[in-house]
């Protein structure tokens, strides 16, 4: 297992929390919590060693082009493909917006 950390600039802290997926089922899990103003912090626990560049590219595409709220994002990936990860992240963001 490998733990990766990433940071991007962000706006004000999010107002809610979201959890999608289920780590107990061996599925990709994404947790969103309010973060520190100005920072989008992401921690990934992955079973795929050496996947740093893949994660960086995915997050760069998702979070560098638009102003996101300040969040702490925790991801347990269980070897999920980038498409599945993006889907789960979008699902979590949607759940956060519904709160």
Shape, per Cα inertia axes: globular
- End-to-end separation in angstroms reads 33 Å
Report the average pLDDT across residues: 88
The tally of helices reads 2
Low-confidence stretches: none
Taken as a percent bin, the fraction of beta residues is 25-35%
Helix content: 25-40%
Order of helices and strands: EEEEHEH
Largest sheet, spatial ordering of strands: 1-4-5-3-2
Structural category: alpha+beta
**What integer value in Å does the Rg equal?**
13 Å
Largest sheet: 5 strands, mixed
The number of distinct β-strands equals: 5
Total separate domains: 1
Describe the protein:
- With 99 residues, the protein is an alpha+beta fold.
- It has one domain.
- The protein is 29% helix and 31% strand.
- It has a five-stranded mixed beta sheet, with helices on one face.
- It starts with a strand and ends with a helix.
Task: Summarize the helices and strands and which ones pair or pack.
Layout: E1 2-9, E2 18-20, E3 29-34, E4 39-46, H1 52-63, E5 71-76, H2 82-98
Parallel strand pairs: 4-5
Antiparallel strand pairs: 1-4, 2-3, 3-5
Family: Belongs to the MdcC family.
Subcellular location: Cytoplasm
GO cellular component, one term: cytoplasm
């Amino acid at each position: 297992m490998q733990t990766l950390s990433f940071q991007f600039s962000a706006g004000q802290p999010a107002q809610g929390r979201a959890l999608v997926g289920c780590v107990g089922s061996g599925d990709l899990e994404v947790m969103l919590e309010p973060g520190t103003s100005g920072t989008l912090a992401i921690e990934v626990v992955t079973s795929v060693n050496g996947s740093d560049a893949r994660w960086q590219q995915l997050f760069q595409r998702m979070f560098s082009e638009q102003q996101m709220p300040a969040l702490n994002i925790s991801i347990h990936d269980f070897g999920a493909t980038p498409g599945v990860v993006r889907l789960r992240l979008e699902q979590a963001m949607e759940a956060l917006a519904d709160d």
